[in-house]
Amino acid sequence: MCIPPAQLDRLLRRGNTNYCVRTDRKTERLIEEPKALLKQVHARVAHLLAQVETPAYLHSGIKKHSYITNAAEHRVEGGAVKLDVQKFFPSVRAAAVCHFFADVMEYPMDVASRMTKLLTINGHLPTGGNASCILSFWAYKNMFDEIAALAAAKGCTFTLYVDDMTITGQFATRAMQKEARAIIGRYRLKAHKTKIFSHRQPRIVTGVAITARGPELPNRRARKIAITMAGVEAAATDSQRLALMPSLIGRVSEAVEVDPLWAGRKAAAVGMRRTIRSRVEKSR
User: Fold this and answer.
1) Rounded distance, CA 168 to CA 160, Å?
2) pLDDT tens by residue, 258-271
3) Cα separations (Å) of 33 from 81, 127, 167, 245?
4) Could you tell me where the beta strands, DSSP code E, fall in the chain?
5) What predicted TM-score, i.e. pTM, was given to this entire model?
6) Which regions of the chain are under pLDDT 50?
7) CATH number of 66-87+140-208
8) What are the residue ranges spanned by the domains of the chain?
């Protein structure tokens, strides 16, 4: 581990007080974030687990994979089934985490128990923990493997991004959705946000619109860029405009990753920032 044993013992004794717990203003979700020392432990565990070989269907918590590579696996042809797990991290029980360390990693039970205590809060994975993403997969790998096998048996494509599951193909139908929900239920979890799409119907997969024309930026994300741009144009001073530019360029940069056709708008935004910054510097 990345810190001395004495400090690990101190972390174990402190338990839940090792976390800063707050409510996100936008989503109103509870964020359980490890404090600095425990955060080092979580980051180290996440780094080590990211190097363990995982199934091809997983696109989260591992190198060279992202929401974009996840979406790229799917096409608009055939149907699509989307579903995720309700309150996933709070539903990943400490017992499942301990099972992973004891039975999969083959740690002695006392070590598995200590690892579990360091990586969970109130008996579940913390919503703001660095290791929660990859640990949630390993804790329920058997469940995800079952759903992957269900899809493969019907010649469908299955991908997983955290708990966002997507199945596409000719037999990605309501019947498959019901079977996938049943598998999730057997693991004492609850599926929600389930959606079904028909053949060639555009579908949003992990923030990317899959259409007959190829991957595109969803309308919702395009509107956010337009709103941010309008804010820049409406700003009263160049200093205010300059303060808004990082948000605009950040959003457009993400858009380029999804759809290269946005590259021109990114170049324009970068040029605009350069011009505004020059005016601000000259006015000083």
Assistant:
1) 12
2) 999 999 999 999 99
3) 32, 7, 32, 29
4) 19-23, 30-34, 79-85, 157-161, 164-169, 191-197, 203-205, 208-211, 214-216
5) 0.88
6) none
7) 3.30.70.270
8) 1-55+93-139, 66-87+140-208, 217-283
